[in-house]
Amino acid sequence: EAKGRGPNNHVLFEPEMQAKVSRRAKLEGELRGAIDKGSIGAFYQPLVDLRSGDVCGFEALARWKNEDGEFVPPNVFIPLAEEAGLITPLFQQLLRQACEAARSWPEGMGLSFNLSPVQMEDRMLPTRVIGILDEVGFPPERLELEITENALVSDPDLAAHIMDSLSSRGVQIALDDFGTGYSNLSQLARFRFDKIKIDKSFVAACGTDERQEKVIRAMLGLSRSLHAKTTVEGIEDHRQLAHFVSQGCDLGQGYLLGRPMPAEDVLMYLSDRRQVLATG
Length: 280
Ligand code: C2E
Ligand code: MG
Ligand code: MG
Ligand code: MG
What we know:
Elements: H1 9-12, H2 14-37, E1 41-49, E2 55-65, E3 71-72, H3 74-83, H4 87-102, E4 110-114, H5 125-136, E5 143-148, H6 156-168, E6 172-178, H7 185-188, E7 195-198, H8 200-205, H9 210-225, E8 229-233, H10 238-246, E9 251-253, E10 261-262, H11 266-278
Bound molecules: ligand C2E and magnesium ion (3 copies).
C-alpha cells in the first residue's frame, strides 16, 4: 500500500476509494432489494448433546445468494445491514422464517438464532421477538438467542434489561464466540446466560498447545460455575471431539457433527442419523 503514497496520497488513492464506495453502494442496493423480496434465507446447523450424541437443536445461519448467484457471507452482509439500518427488517423476516421451519421439527428440538450487537440497543426487541413467536405459534422455551460479548458493551444496562425481559418470557440466552470479544469479566457476572459458546478459534489450538488447553479448561469452569451450559463450536475432527467430551463440555457444533444445511434437509438428516445410530 505505502508504495503509492505521495504528499497528496488521498488524490492518488481516489479511484480505488471510489471503486470501493461504489461496490459497497451496489451491494447495499442489492441487499435492500433482497430484503424487499424476502430472498435471504437460512441454513441450519445441528447442535449435538456430547453425552448422548443426540441432536438437540439447530442454529439458523443467514444465507444470501446475490444477483450474480454467489453466496455473500454473513460476515459481510450482516455488518452492511447494520450500517444501512436494515437489520431489524432482516431479523424479523429471518426469525419468522426460521420459527416456521422449526415448527415442523420433532418436539423439543431447539432453534438458535443470532442477534447483532446493534439489536441490543433496540428497546422494542423483546416485543418484536415475542410478537413473531405468537404469530407463528412457536414456544419461547424452544428459542435461544445468541449474542456476542460486543453486544453488551455499548449500553450494558439496556442490554441487561432486554435480556431479562426475554428471559422472563422463557427465551433462552446464549453468549456466542466467548473469549474473542471485548468482554470485561467483571461485567459478565451481571448478565444471566443459559449457555456459553466457546469460539472455534480455541478449538483449532486444542491438543497442540498446553497453555491453550488450560485457558479452555478455565472457560469451561467459569461457565459451569455460572450455571450455564457450554457449547463448543467448530469441531472438525475426532481428536477435538474427544477432547471436549472428556472435558465435560455439554454441547458441540461443527463440520464433524453436521454442516449447515437447507431447511428442507433437516428432517431427512435427523432420520438418517437415527438409522446410523440404530445400526451401530
Ligand atoms: P456464529 O454465530 O459464531 O456461527 C458459527 C459460524 O461458524 C458459522 O459461519 C458456521 O457456518 C461456522 N462453522 C460451523 N462449524 C464449523 C466448523 O467446524 N469449522 C469452521 N471453520 N466453521 C464452522 P457463518 O454461517 O459464515 O456465519 C458467520 C457469522 O455470521 C455467525 O457466527 C454469526 O455471528 C453471523 N450470522 C450468521 N447468521 C446471522 C443472522 O441471522 N443474524 C446475525 N445477526 N448474525 C448472523
Ligand atoms: Mg452463533
Ligand atoms: Mg459462534
Ligand atoms: Mg464464531
